[in-house]
Amino acid sequence: MFNLVIFGGPGSGKGTQSEKLIDRYGLTHISTGQVLRDEIKAGTELGKIAATYIDHGQLIPDQLMVRILADEIDRLKGDSAGFIFDGFPRTINQAERLTEMLAERGTKVDAVVGLEVPDEELTARLIERGKVSGRADDNAETIGRRLEVYHDTTSPLRDHYIDKGLYHAIPGLGTIDEIFETIKSEIESCPNPPIPNA
Ligand code: AMP
User: What is the predicted pLDDT for the residue at 178?
Assistant: First the structure.
């Protein structure tokens, strides 16, 4: 298995680059934000709880989030070539729990791809996305809050993964294809890289 964390601020291109990674390597995508949005859409109890946080740009509590992720891993693992974790971890505690969760299942995080994009660009992209996404959290006020949460709580993960020797910094400005080329060469220089589709 090759497990990848795709990391970066809101609007940094995690979802877009994940699609290209899935195409090339056949990895299984887990977007925790999407899992939560699906629950909200289905009107479940979990969805109702999640909406109270998401609509305010706040993080869902770690304990709940870790449980959701473990369920997703177990639902999808089958004979997966590996996972792309998109939007998880978002706290140091989540990162530690992810390490444990994967170790319990005989695997690990192999690489963290960090899409590095300045705040002004993130804000501009999210405002644009808000015009078509229909996402309750793509509005000016919530975007500001999400960026604050990202800087206060999530960005320390960069150092956490640098210390572990797993972090690959990717300049997140440029065309989608240019950024993907950089990601590809970083991933394919890892030990035991995933095998590209024919
Ligand atoms: P995303 O689609 O990754 O931008 O996530 C949208 C929202 O879902 C976030 O702003 C959080 O409210 C919530 N969320 C997604 N993933 C996590 C996570 N790992 N921990 C806590 N909250 C999360």
Answer: 98
pTM given for the model: 0.96
Q: Is 109 helix (H, G, I), strand (E, B) or coil?
A: coil
Summarised one tens digit per residue, pLDDT across range 7-23 is 999 999 999 999 999 99
Select which of 14, 37, 97, 125 is catalytic: 14
| Residue 158 designated active-site | no
The domains of the chain, with CATH numbers, are: 4-187 (3.40.50.300)
The pair of structure tokens assigned to 146 is 């999400």
- CA nearest 115: which of 141, 148, 154? 154
The minimum-distance atom of ligand 1 relative to the CA of 88 is 19
Q: Which residue has tokens 């996305």?
A: 129
**59 CA → ligand 1 middle, Å:** 6
